[in-house]
């Protein structure tokens, strides 16, 4: 056995993240790790990678009991990790990030040219839409994820941990990631793979381990189990995985957009999906509507009124909310408690006579915590200490509380578990029923097909097609890809 | 959990320990004359540090407070020497501070320059202007009533202590219970997320610097009252003491952290250190070194506490 974990425990100031974490991973196998948001998956992986120290239990590497004190220790034996949240240095280039901490030297100096060219080669081999000299701060979350992957590949020798590598990727990069994973398996490298997209298991998983509330509750061959069984183990109860949305009769027109490359409208009670490949301009469209990158040409109308938001502030005042795709960078104040994050965009509602009513704030945020089932000890916990999926729920709660007429969702289900996905869809449906107009960008086509009333397809910064709810994945891909 | 509490209370416990140690070491320490002199000496730094707390929580820094103190003091003094009443003179001083603060905030927002640079520039400009308008000479001949601000007592309590407490309570309320305060934390914690939440980051940033300037203006008049002259060279390197007070009190230079209570404790620790060194006859040059070491120690302890609970 390459790696064995037995009865791992980890406590974070009162939160028992892992109670009895067991795991066995062999070389040349893809080992999927499944569990709800906050189940302790990332914590377990960080213990393996030497980023956290375990409180108890045993870690055996090739039969030997080990205790990695720092990431360097794990790296030294050939373990590398692709992190769920980007841990890159934003001011450095792609190549510098890939080599960070293990730079190639030329005497006492950095051998920049060598690093640059081998980084370029790595990128090219994997068909990633990146350039070695680009600055990481200019990259989208999906591109950052690819840099993380390059970084892990560069140092990989025995075991690679992928913590939700595909959460922010679209179809074509996801396919590349699968190819990479298969190649690594071929080379006899062990792979630990965390995902909330359970359909991916069929593509690559050999073994499956399920974590629930810090306990390993299931371990076995992927072939010997069923999807329903896995989900059942994960949540500890039966869940409806297939979400069916009833079609509503749209009301009056709420949003009418007519800017270069994008002309469409959304009515009350409608959810309009936006599909496209990485870099198709979906996020840019959201940012234009939200006033981040205002458009000088064309016009935007809300309920017939012409608006021209030049900042998020003006957009929010006009009745538009944007749930961004990058929760850490633009969604949350990580050092502030959940409570303050939830009321941040609507502080006026809990302010009376100039004073923020903390008791009321607490009531409000607890209501949203319960409604969205945010897993936290209390609403006073810092947002940065939540698991990835729970952070996403806090961002959604913030805008639910603001209660705008138009809500733009940019990859709303990124990194959230099956149960929470169904909850988010139910929330979107509820919002639609209340007469809101919703735009939903997603890289997961099955999701769009389930939820959206119509689907806009983007390519090269333009909307190239508008497809009805009854369309197919193939049809969408056809319009999204080059050619047509 | 209990250890965390203990470490959070560390600055406060250090203050108490220092107080007790000094009480034992020097019989003179606990006299009301000495204690009120500590209060008077620290009041100026303390009031400025309250404003700096807001600035630092917002993720900014203000290096120009010492220079603004000199400028406001000189201009306020000149107003009084020119025949204006004490009230008007003090108001002029406070408004000068407010204007400088607002200008700092405006330049950071409008020109999008880091506050370190803007306020470094403002430091030079304010110092230069002060020397020009005063001709490099102290402004003297201030009205006698002005002494009350710095040296007066109300029912035996130093008047500056009352002013300080009022300022502290107001700043505390602003920071913890108003929109302005909340947005200050939000901007300091993650500016981009604040923009995306629809918070008008620009105006709030200007407001934060303006408040800091206003408090500095008030401090300048207290300083003037204590010296009974408008000194163009007043406030040399006060910015460092002020920033140190905030940082010792748990403020983080990367923003999003800091509190009024912490800052008060930080300022009093520094006040006691220098008073104690005077009482015990410690070489003033050594005093500076001790204070420097204390700053590093305080921040190191605070970081150690935070690291235990950080998300890696
Ligand atoms: N540094 C930390 N400080 C405090 N609590 C933490 C910290 N890291 C994780 N936790 C808590 O530990 C629990 C497990 O978190 P973990 O990140 O391992 O979940 P996860 O299974 O990876 O979830 P997700 O699918 O949402 O990423 C959560 O309740 C989380 O709030
Ligand atoms: Mg995780």
Explain what you see.
The complex is a heterodimer of chains A (484) and B (312). Chain A is of the alpha/beta class and 484 residues long. Chain A has two domains: 3-235, 3-Layer(aba) Sandwich (Rossmann fold), CATH 3.40.50; 253-481, 3-Layer(aba) Sandwich (Rossmann fold), CATH 3.40.50.300. Helices cover 34% and strands 25% of the residues of chain A. In chain A, a hairpin with a 2-residue loop joins strand 13 and strand 14 (262-267). The longest helix of chain A is centred in the middle third of the chain and has 16 residues, at 171-186. Chain B has 312 residues and is mostly helical. Chain B has a domain at 32-235. Helices cover 75% and strands 1% of the residues of chain B. Chain B is built from 14 helices and two strands; from the N terminus they run H-H-H-H-H-H-H-E-E-H-H-H-H-H-H-H. Chain B has helices at residues 2-8, 10-25, 32-57, 65-81, 86-110, 115-134, 147-151, 159-177, 179-189, 191-196, 201-227, 238-248, 260-279, 284-307, and strands spanning 153-154, 157-158. Chain B has a two-stranded antiparallel ribbon with strand order 1-2. In chain B, a hairpin with a 2-residue loop joins strand 1 and strand 2. The two termini of chain B are 19 Å apart. The model of chain B has no long low-confidence stretch (mean pLDDT 90). Chain A binds chain B through residues 12-14, 46, 51-52, 290, 292, 311-313, 315-317, 322, 324, 329-336, 340, 344-345, 347-348, 351, 354-356, 358, 384-385, 398, 402, and chain B through 1, 4, 173, 177-179, 181-183, 185-186, 189-190, 192-200, 256-257, 308-309, 311-312. Bound molecules: adenosine-5'-triphosphate and magnesium ion. Adenosine-5'-triphosphate (ATP) is lined by residues 12, 15, 17, 35, 37-43, 84, 375, 385-390 of chain A. Adenosine-5'-triphosphate binds at residues 12, 15, 17, 35, 37-43, 84, 375, 385-390 of chain A.
List the helices and strands and how they pair.
The complex is a heterodimer of chains A (484) and B (312).
Chain A: E1 3-12, E2 15-25, E3 30-35, H1 41-48, E4 56-61, E5 64-65, H2 71-76, E6 79-82, H3 94-98, E7 105-106, E8 109-110, H4 112-125, H5 141-155, E9 159-163, H6 171-186, E10 190-194, H7 199-204, E11 207-212, E12 215-221, H8 227-235, E13 253-259, E14 262-267, E15 271-276, H9 282-289, E16 299-302, E17 305-307, H10 312-318, E18 320-323, H11 327-331, H12 338-343, E19 351-352, E20 355-356, H13 358-372, H14 388-402, E21 406-410, H15 418-433, E22 437-441, H16 445-451, E23 454-459, E24 462-468, H17 473-480
Parallel strand pairs in A: 3-10, 3-11, 6-9, 9-10, 15-22, 15-23, 18-21, 21-22
Antiparallel strand pairs in A: 1-2, 1-4, 4-5, 7-8, 11-12, 13-14, 13-16, 16-17, 19-20, 23-24
Chain B: H1 2-8, H2 10-25, H3 32-57, H4 65-81, H5 86-110, H6 115-134, H7 147-151, E1 153-154, E2 157-158, H8 159-177, H9 179-189, H10 191-196, H11 201-227, H12 238-248, H13 260-279, H14 284-307
Antiparallel strand pairs in B: 1-2
The complex binds adenosine-5'-triphosphate and magnesium ion.
Residues 41-42, 84, 163, 387-388 of chain A line the site of magnesium ion.
């Amino acid at each position: 056995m390459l790696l064995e974990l037995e009865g791992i425990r980890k406590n974070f100031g009162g939160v028992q993240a892992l109670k009895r974490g067991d795991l066995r991973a062999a070389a040349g196998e893809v080992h999927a790790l499944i569990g709800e948001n906050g189940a302790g998956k990332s914590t377990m992986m960080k213990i393996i990678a030497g980023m956290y120290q375990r409180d108890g239990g045993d870690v055996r590497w090739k039969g030997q009991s080990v205790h990695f004190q720092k990431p360097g220790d794990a790296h030294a034996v050939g373990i590398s990790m692709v992190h769920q949240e980007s841990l890159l240095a934003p001011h450095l280039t792609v190549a510098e990030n890939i080599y960070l901490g293990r730079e190639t030297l030329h005497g006492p100096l950095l051998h920049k040219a060598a690093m640059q060219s081998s980084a370029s080669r790595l990128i090219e081999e994997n068909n990633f839409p990146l350039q070695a000299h680009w600055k990481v701060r200019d990259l989208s979350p999906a591109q950052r994820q690819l840099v993380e992957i390059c970084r892990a590949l560069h140092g990989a020798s025995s075991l690679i941990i992928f913590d939700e590598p595909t959460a922010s990727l679209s179809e074509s990069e996801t396919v590349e990631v699968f190819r990479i994973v298969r190649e690594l398996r071929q080379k006899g490298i062990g792979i630990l793979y965390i995902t909330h997209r359970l359909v991916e298991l069929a593509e690559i998983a050999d073994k499956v381990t399920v974590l629930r509330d810090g306990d390993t509750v299931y371990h076995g061959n992927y072939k010997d189990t069923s999807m329903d069984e896995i989900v059942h183990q994960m949540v500890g109860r039966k869940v409806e995985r297939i979400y069916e949305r009833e079609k509503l009769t749209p009301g009056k027109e709420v949003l009418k957009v007519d800017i270069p490359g994008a002309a469409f409208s959304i009515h009350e009670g409608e959810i309009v999906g936006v599909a496209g490949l990485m870099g198709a301009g979906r996020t840019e469209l959201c940012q234009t509507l939200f006033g981040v990158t205002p458009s000088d040409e064309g016009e935007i109308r809300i309920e017939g009124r012409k608006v021209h938001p030049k900042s998020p502030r003006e957009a929010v005042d006009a009745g538009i909310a944007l749930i961004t795709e990058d929760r850490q960078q633009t969604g949350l104040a990580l050092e502030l408690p959940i409570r303050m994050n939830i009321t941040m965009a609507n502080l006026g509602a809990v302010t009376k006579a100039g004073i923020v009513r903390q008791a009321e704030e607490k009531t409000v945020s607890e209501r949203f915590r319960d409604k969205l089932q945010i897993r936290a000890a209390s609403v006073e916990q810092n947002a940065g200490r939540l698991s990835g999926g729970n952070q996403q729920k806090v961002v959604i709660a913030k805008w639910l509380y603001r209660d705008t007429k138009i809500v733009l969702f940019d990859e709303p289900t990124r990194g959230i578990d099956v149960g929470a996905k169904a909850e988010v869809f139910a929330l979107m449906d509820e919002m639609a029923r209340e007469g809101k107009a919703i735009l939903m960008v997603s890289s997961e086509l099955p999701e769009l097909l389930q939820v959206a009333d119509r689907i806009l397809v983007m390519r090269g910064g333009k909307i190239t097609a508008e497809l009805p709810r009854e369309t197919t994945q193939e049809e969408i891909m056809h319009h999204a890809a080059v050619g047509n | 959990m209990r250890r965390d509490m203990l470490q959070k209370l560390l600055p406060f416990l250090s203050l108490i320990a220092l107080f007790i140690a000094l009480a034992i070491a020097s019989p003179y320490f606990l006299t009301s004359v000495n204690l009120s002199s500590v209060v008077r000496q620290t009041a100026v730094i303390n009031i400025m540090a309250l404003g700096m707390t807001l600035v630092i929580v917002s993720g900014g820094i203000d290096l120009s407070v010492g220079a603004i103190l000199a400028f406001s003091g000189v201009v306020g003094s000149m107003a009084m020497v020119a025949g204006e009443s004490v009230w008007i003179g003090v108001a002029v001083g406070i408004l000068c501070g407010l204007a400088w603060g607002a200008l700092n905030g405006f330049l950071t927002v409008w020109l999008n320059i880091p506050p370190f640079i803007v306020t470094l520039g403002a430091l030079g400009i304010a110092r230069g202007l002060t020397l020009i308008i005063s001709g490099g000479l102290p402004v003297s001949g201030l009205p006698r009533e002005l002494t009350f601000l710095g040296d007066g007592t109300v029912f035996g309590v130093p008047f500056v202590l009352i002013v300080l407490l009022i300022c502290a309570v107001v700043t505390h309320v602003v920071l913890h219970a108003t929109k302005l305060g909340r947005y200050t934390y939000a901007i300091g914690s993650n500016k981009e997320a604040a923009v995306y939440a629809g918070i008008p980051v620009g105006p709030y940033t200007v407001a934060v610097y303006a408040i800091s300037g206003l408090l500095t203006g008030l401090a300048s008049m207290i300083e003037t009252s204590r010296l009974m002259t408008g000194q163009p060279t007043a406030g040399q390197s006060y910015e460092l003491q002020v920033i140190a007070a905030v940082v010792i009190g748990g403020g983080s230079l990367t923003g999003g952290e800091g509190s009024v209570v912490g800052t008060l404790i930080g300022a009093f620790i520094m006040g006691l250190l220098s008073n104690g060194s005077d009482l015990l006859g410690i070489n003033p040059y050594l005093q500076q070194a001790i204070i420097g070491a204390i700053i590093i120690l305080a921040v190191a302890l605070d970081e150690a506490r935070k690291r235990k609970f950080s998300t890696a």
